[in-house]
Design a protein that fits this description.
Elements lengths: L5 E4 L5 H10 L1 E3 L9 H10 L2 E3 L8 H4 L8 E3 L10 H6 L3 E3 L6 H14 L4 H9 L20 E5 L3 H12 L3 E5 L6 H7 L1 E3 L3 H5 L4 E4 L13 H4 L7 E4 L8 H9 L5 E4 L10 H4 L4 E3 L8 H19 L7 E3 L4
Parallel strand pairs: 1-2, 1-3, 3-4, 4-5, 6-7, 6-9, 7-8, 9-10, 10-11, 11-12
Antiparallel strand pairs: 5-13
Helix pairs in contact: 1-13, 5-7
Bound molecules: 2-keto-D-gluconic acid.
Amino acid sequence: PKKRPLVIVTRKLPDPIETRMMELFDTRLNIADKPMGQAELIDAVKTADVLVPTITDRIDGAVLAHAGPNMRLIANFGTGVDHIDLAAARQRGITVTNTPGVLTEDTADMTMALILAVPRRLVQGAQALREGKFEGWSPTWMLGQRIWGKRLGIIGMGRIGQAVARRAKAFGLSIHYHNRKKVHESIEQELEATYWESLDQMLARMDIISVNCPHTPATFHLLSARRLDLLPPHAYVVNTARGEIIDENALVRKLRKGEIAGAGLDVFEHEPAVNPKLLELNNVILLPHMGSATLEGRIDMGEKVLINIKTFADGHAPPDRVIAGLL
Ligand code: 8YV
């Protein structure tokens, strides 16, 4: 039998996943659970057969330039792979895999939670009560915006976008979407969804926008200052995808000036840094990248990583290939 691959894991993973990984492979875990710096990542790609990174590792060209001859697979723990230089991986024949599907419903739940919580002022109300400001019911206190009957514009109608649409439809929102291409007619019918080829035109007509596309060179600052200006003043923006898709400074300016109604943000342009001006606003809910953060989801993600590595180590194409390198 072939020797067991050396797998280097950059972050602490759920215990059962680490246990199984050690049973299957020659595994080096990260006990400290701090993100690896560039020097550590370079050391890792020099020696490992397989690297298991997460979003907190920048696997850029400078790191991959040091990839040793054994470095054959990057099995990402997570779905988004925008922290990995895919072109550099492809050039070196390194396979890249991710963990799609298993975090779709959890991320859609969190997105729906923000779609409900921001207009209905859920966090503001809870906070006011804690601060002793609840002096009894009032006909005019803590009024938010009604959810049902409003128009939701989803940017990116992939797995997560569709899962958000199913939930939102059940809450009485009408579903609109912008995507590189129209989704299959049967899905449009099920969701009663309207396709907008022009993102600009959709933005001008929506009450709530949900960002659910991947971050790629094509979607960087897709919601630019110019596009944010197209939103009506009563509009809300929810982002559980990637901070880089929105020009964060422009969004902050609009929120501060009251040119849009509010935002629910689970992701930021310079994570873990959060624009301090956002913290001054009370019409926003800010979350620390929790979209897929469920106990069950993390196990599922880990199992996907294990299957991808095992399949690759057995000499077959792993199921969740983003980049197909040499086997
Ligand atoms: C993950 C995410 O937890 O999967 C993704 O794309 O954004 C998160 O839900 C994170 O990326 C782990 O690497």
